[in-house]
Amino acid sequence: MKETGQQFPDSVLVKQAQEGDRKAFNGLIEKYHKAIVNFIYHNINDGSRAEELAQKVFVRCYLNIKHYNQRYKFTTWLYTIAVNLCKNELRDKNRRPKSVELTDLVRPDVNRDASPVEALADKEIREKVSRAVQSLPEDQRQAIIMSVYNDLPYKEIAEALKTNENTVKSWVFRGKQMLFEMLKGYVKVD
């Protein structure tokens, strides 16, 4: 049976990676790649660029793993790298001319069983939600993405964003309020 990074705790994989074990580092990539791509995508709203930035996150992680302090959670350190790259990307994005990727134009719909009308409605709602999330202030957007999309606890979010838990709770609460207000008619609140 093939052993994967999922089978080992982060502390074991990180210690082995710090000692130069590439398989252990690959285990960390395997374990967190999807979550990091997801986090970056929801921050910058660009699928192909999210993949590129996720690679940069893991390259920086690899280059600096020997400096990582195991007193802190590995995921907090990893998300801190991702947050910083997202901030840089968004800052730099405003300086670059906008372009459309061919893959964005031909990407198939997620729900293949949906009728064309349902697929269009689903796409419209996803785009509306994505635009609403993107319009949030940066701190609220990142806290919402980490909390809702990545299901991270407030403590980890606070550490990654270099703030305290109460501030994160406030950002998430205010961000959700703003999203509900922006998405009236699209979101049902019980």
CATH architecture of the largest domain: Orthogonal Bundle
Overall tally of structural domains:
2
Secondary-structure element pattern, one letter each: HHHHHHHHH
Briefly note the CATH topology name of the largest domain. Rna Polymerase Sigma Factor, Chain: A
Instruction: Please give the number of β-strands.
Output: 0
- Beta-strand portion reads under 5%
User: Which regions have little confidence, pLDDT < 50, spanning 5+ residues?
Assistant: 96-111
Shape estimate: globular
> What is the C-alpha radius of gyration, as a whole number of Å?
18 Å
CATH homology group of the largest domain:
RNA polymerase sigma factor, region 2, helix turn helix motif
- Provide the helix percentage: 55-70%
Concise description?
69% of the residues lie in helices and 0% in strands. The chain has 190 residues and is mainly α. Helix 2 packs antiparallel against helix 3 (47-64) and helix 2 (22-44) crosses helix 7.
Can you walk me through this structure?
It contains nine helices and no strands. The protein has about 190 residues and is mainly α. The chain folds into two domains: about 1-105, Rna Polymerase Sigma Factor, Chain: A (Orthogonal Bundle), CATH 1.10.1740.10; about 110-185, Winged helix-like DNA-binding domain superfamily/Winged helix DNA-binding domain (Arc Repressor Mutant, subunit A, Orthogonal Bundle), CATH 1.10.10.10. The termini are far apart.
